[in-house]
């Protein structure tokens, strides 16, 4: 299927980590003896996993993935799309009112996984393998059902201490693999020693429940329910083409002939609905296909594709990106004109046009293009990030600072905004503010030692008024308390 090409040069640290991320289907309440990376959730002897505990674990692991895992797909456009699609599914079903976060994993394998607290990861390979948006939506709907039905917590409750040890060892292995394959393997062996190696997948009952609710939710959200069944069936039929005899998704979500039969019987009873793919689905797949390193062969294929009768907007979009990656600016701009004639306005198309201006060194024009795009698509984080950075590069840091300050008021845990803010403050010579912003960034990342250092530098800065210094003093005390707690837990774990 040629899925690996777009991701050349981006891989996990080891084959062990790749395998573990592929099987990351659940994480549980973990005793302190297993990981210093997890929050203190109370009595470690308890086998109950409360909703609050799930939220804490999910937030902690998501932070670790977002800031320290090279496989995290750092692409605001793709993340925007996954969350828009996921929110549509959540709002239509039992997930309404719960907190969910969807993110991409830069890996060519076919996989998706749910973590506690509604954190759902989707491998790039799975997005590329989906032949229709309803197929991708079907996988997400299935994962959402695992979360809403609290299958992780129920697994822990059913398996007692054995289940706790299995889930804890799997979690530690995933975390440890970021830096040490040997530590990761030791964690796996700890789980196997407890006789739990056969428990790495959801039970048949849980999978059937997720299938049933996933189909219902898919229909309620307005998608073609046959997409879910067809995708799963295609994965099973093509399993012989994949390493270890099956795609990662089938290893963590065992797919039997009975499950497929039941799913097909269920969807046949529902009314037929033909649902066209959204433009953003097509553009996201085009962007993933092109990747960051464009080969002459791929460029030739894309050039040929736009010459065919009825060539799609996605094909033209991919060609623009490919020309841009190859620094063939004249051809990229001509292809952009053709794209504009074909496609309605889209945040991704607006962003691509601004990228062309950036590549020409026109930061003022790019900032204007990003701003105009945000006027049409105010929820796009990609356009917001683009405008802020373009303003700084255009020599207008004060405007960039005002922009990100306003956005931080509503999303104070967005580390990228604090990073851009500190950059703008540095250009403006605002030393206290710059160090304070860096302190907030490190605190979001969980690096309390670095955060305390930055707040100390802010405290020592000669600029800033009384109120700014007071705010810094308060944050320094808070971060030092968090650092002390972190160090105490580490000592207890030795």
Report on the architecture of this protein:
- The chain is an all-alpha fold and 494 residues long.
- Among the domains are: 5-268, no CATH class; 278-344, no CATH class.
- The chain is built from 23 helices and three strands.
- Strands 1-3-2 form a three-stranded mixed sheet.
- A hairpin with a 3-residue loop joins strand 2 and strand 3 (119-123).
- The longest helix is centred in the C-terminal third of the chain and has 28 residues, at 466-493.
- The two termini are 47 Å apart.
Could you provide a short overview of the structure?
This protein is an all-alpha fold. Helix content is 65%, strand content 3%.
Largest sheet composition: 3 strands, mixed
Based on CA atoms alone, the radius of gyration comes out at 24 Å
Number of strands: 3
Strand residue percentage? under 5%
Helical run tally: 23
Q: Please mark out the parts with pLDDT under 50 across 5 or more consecutive residues, or reply none.
A: 1-47, 172-200
Tell me, briefly, the overall form: flat
**Mean model confidence by pLDDT:** 80
**Structural class, from helix and strand content?**
mainly alpha
Biggest sheet, spatial arrangement of strands: 1-3-2
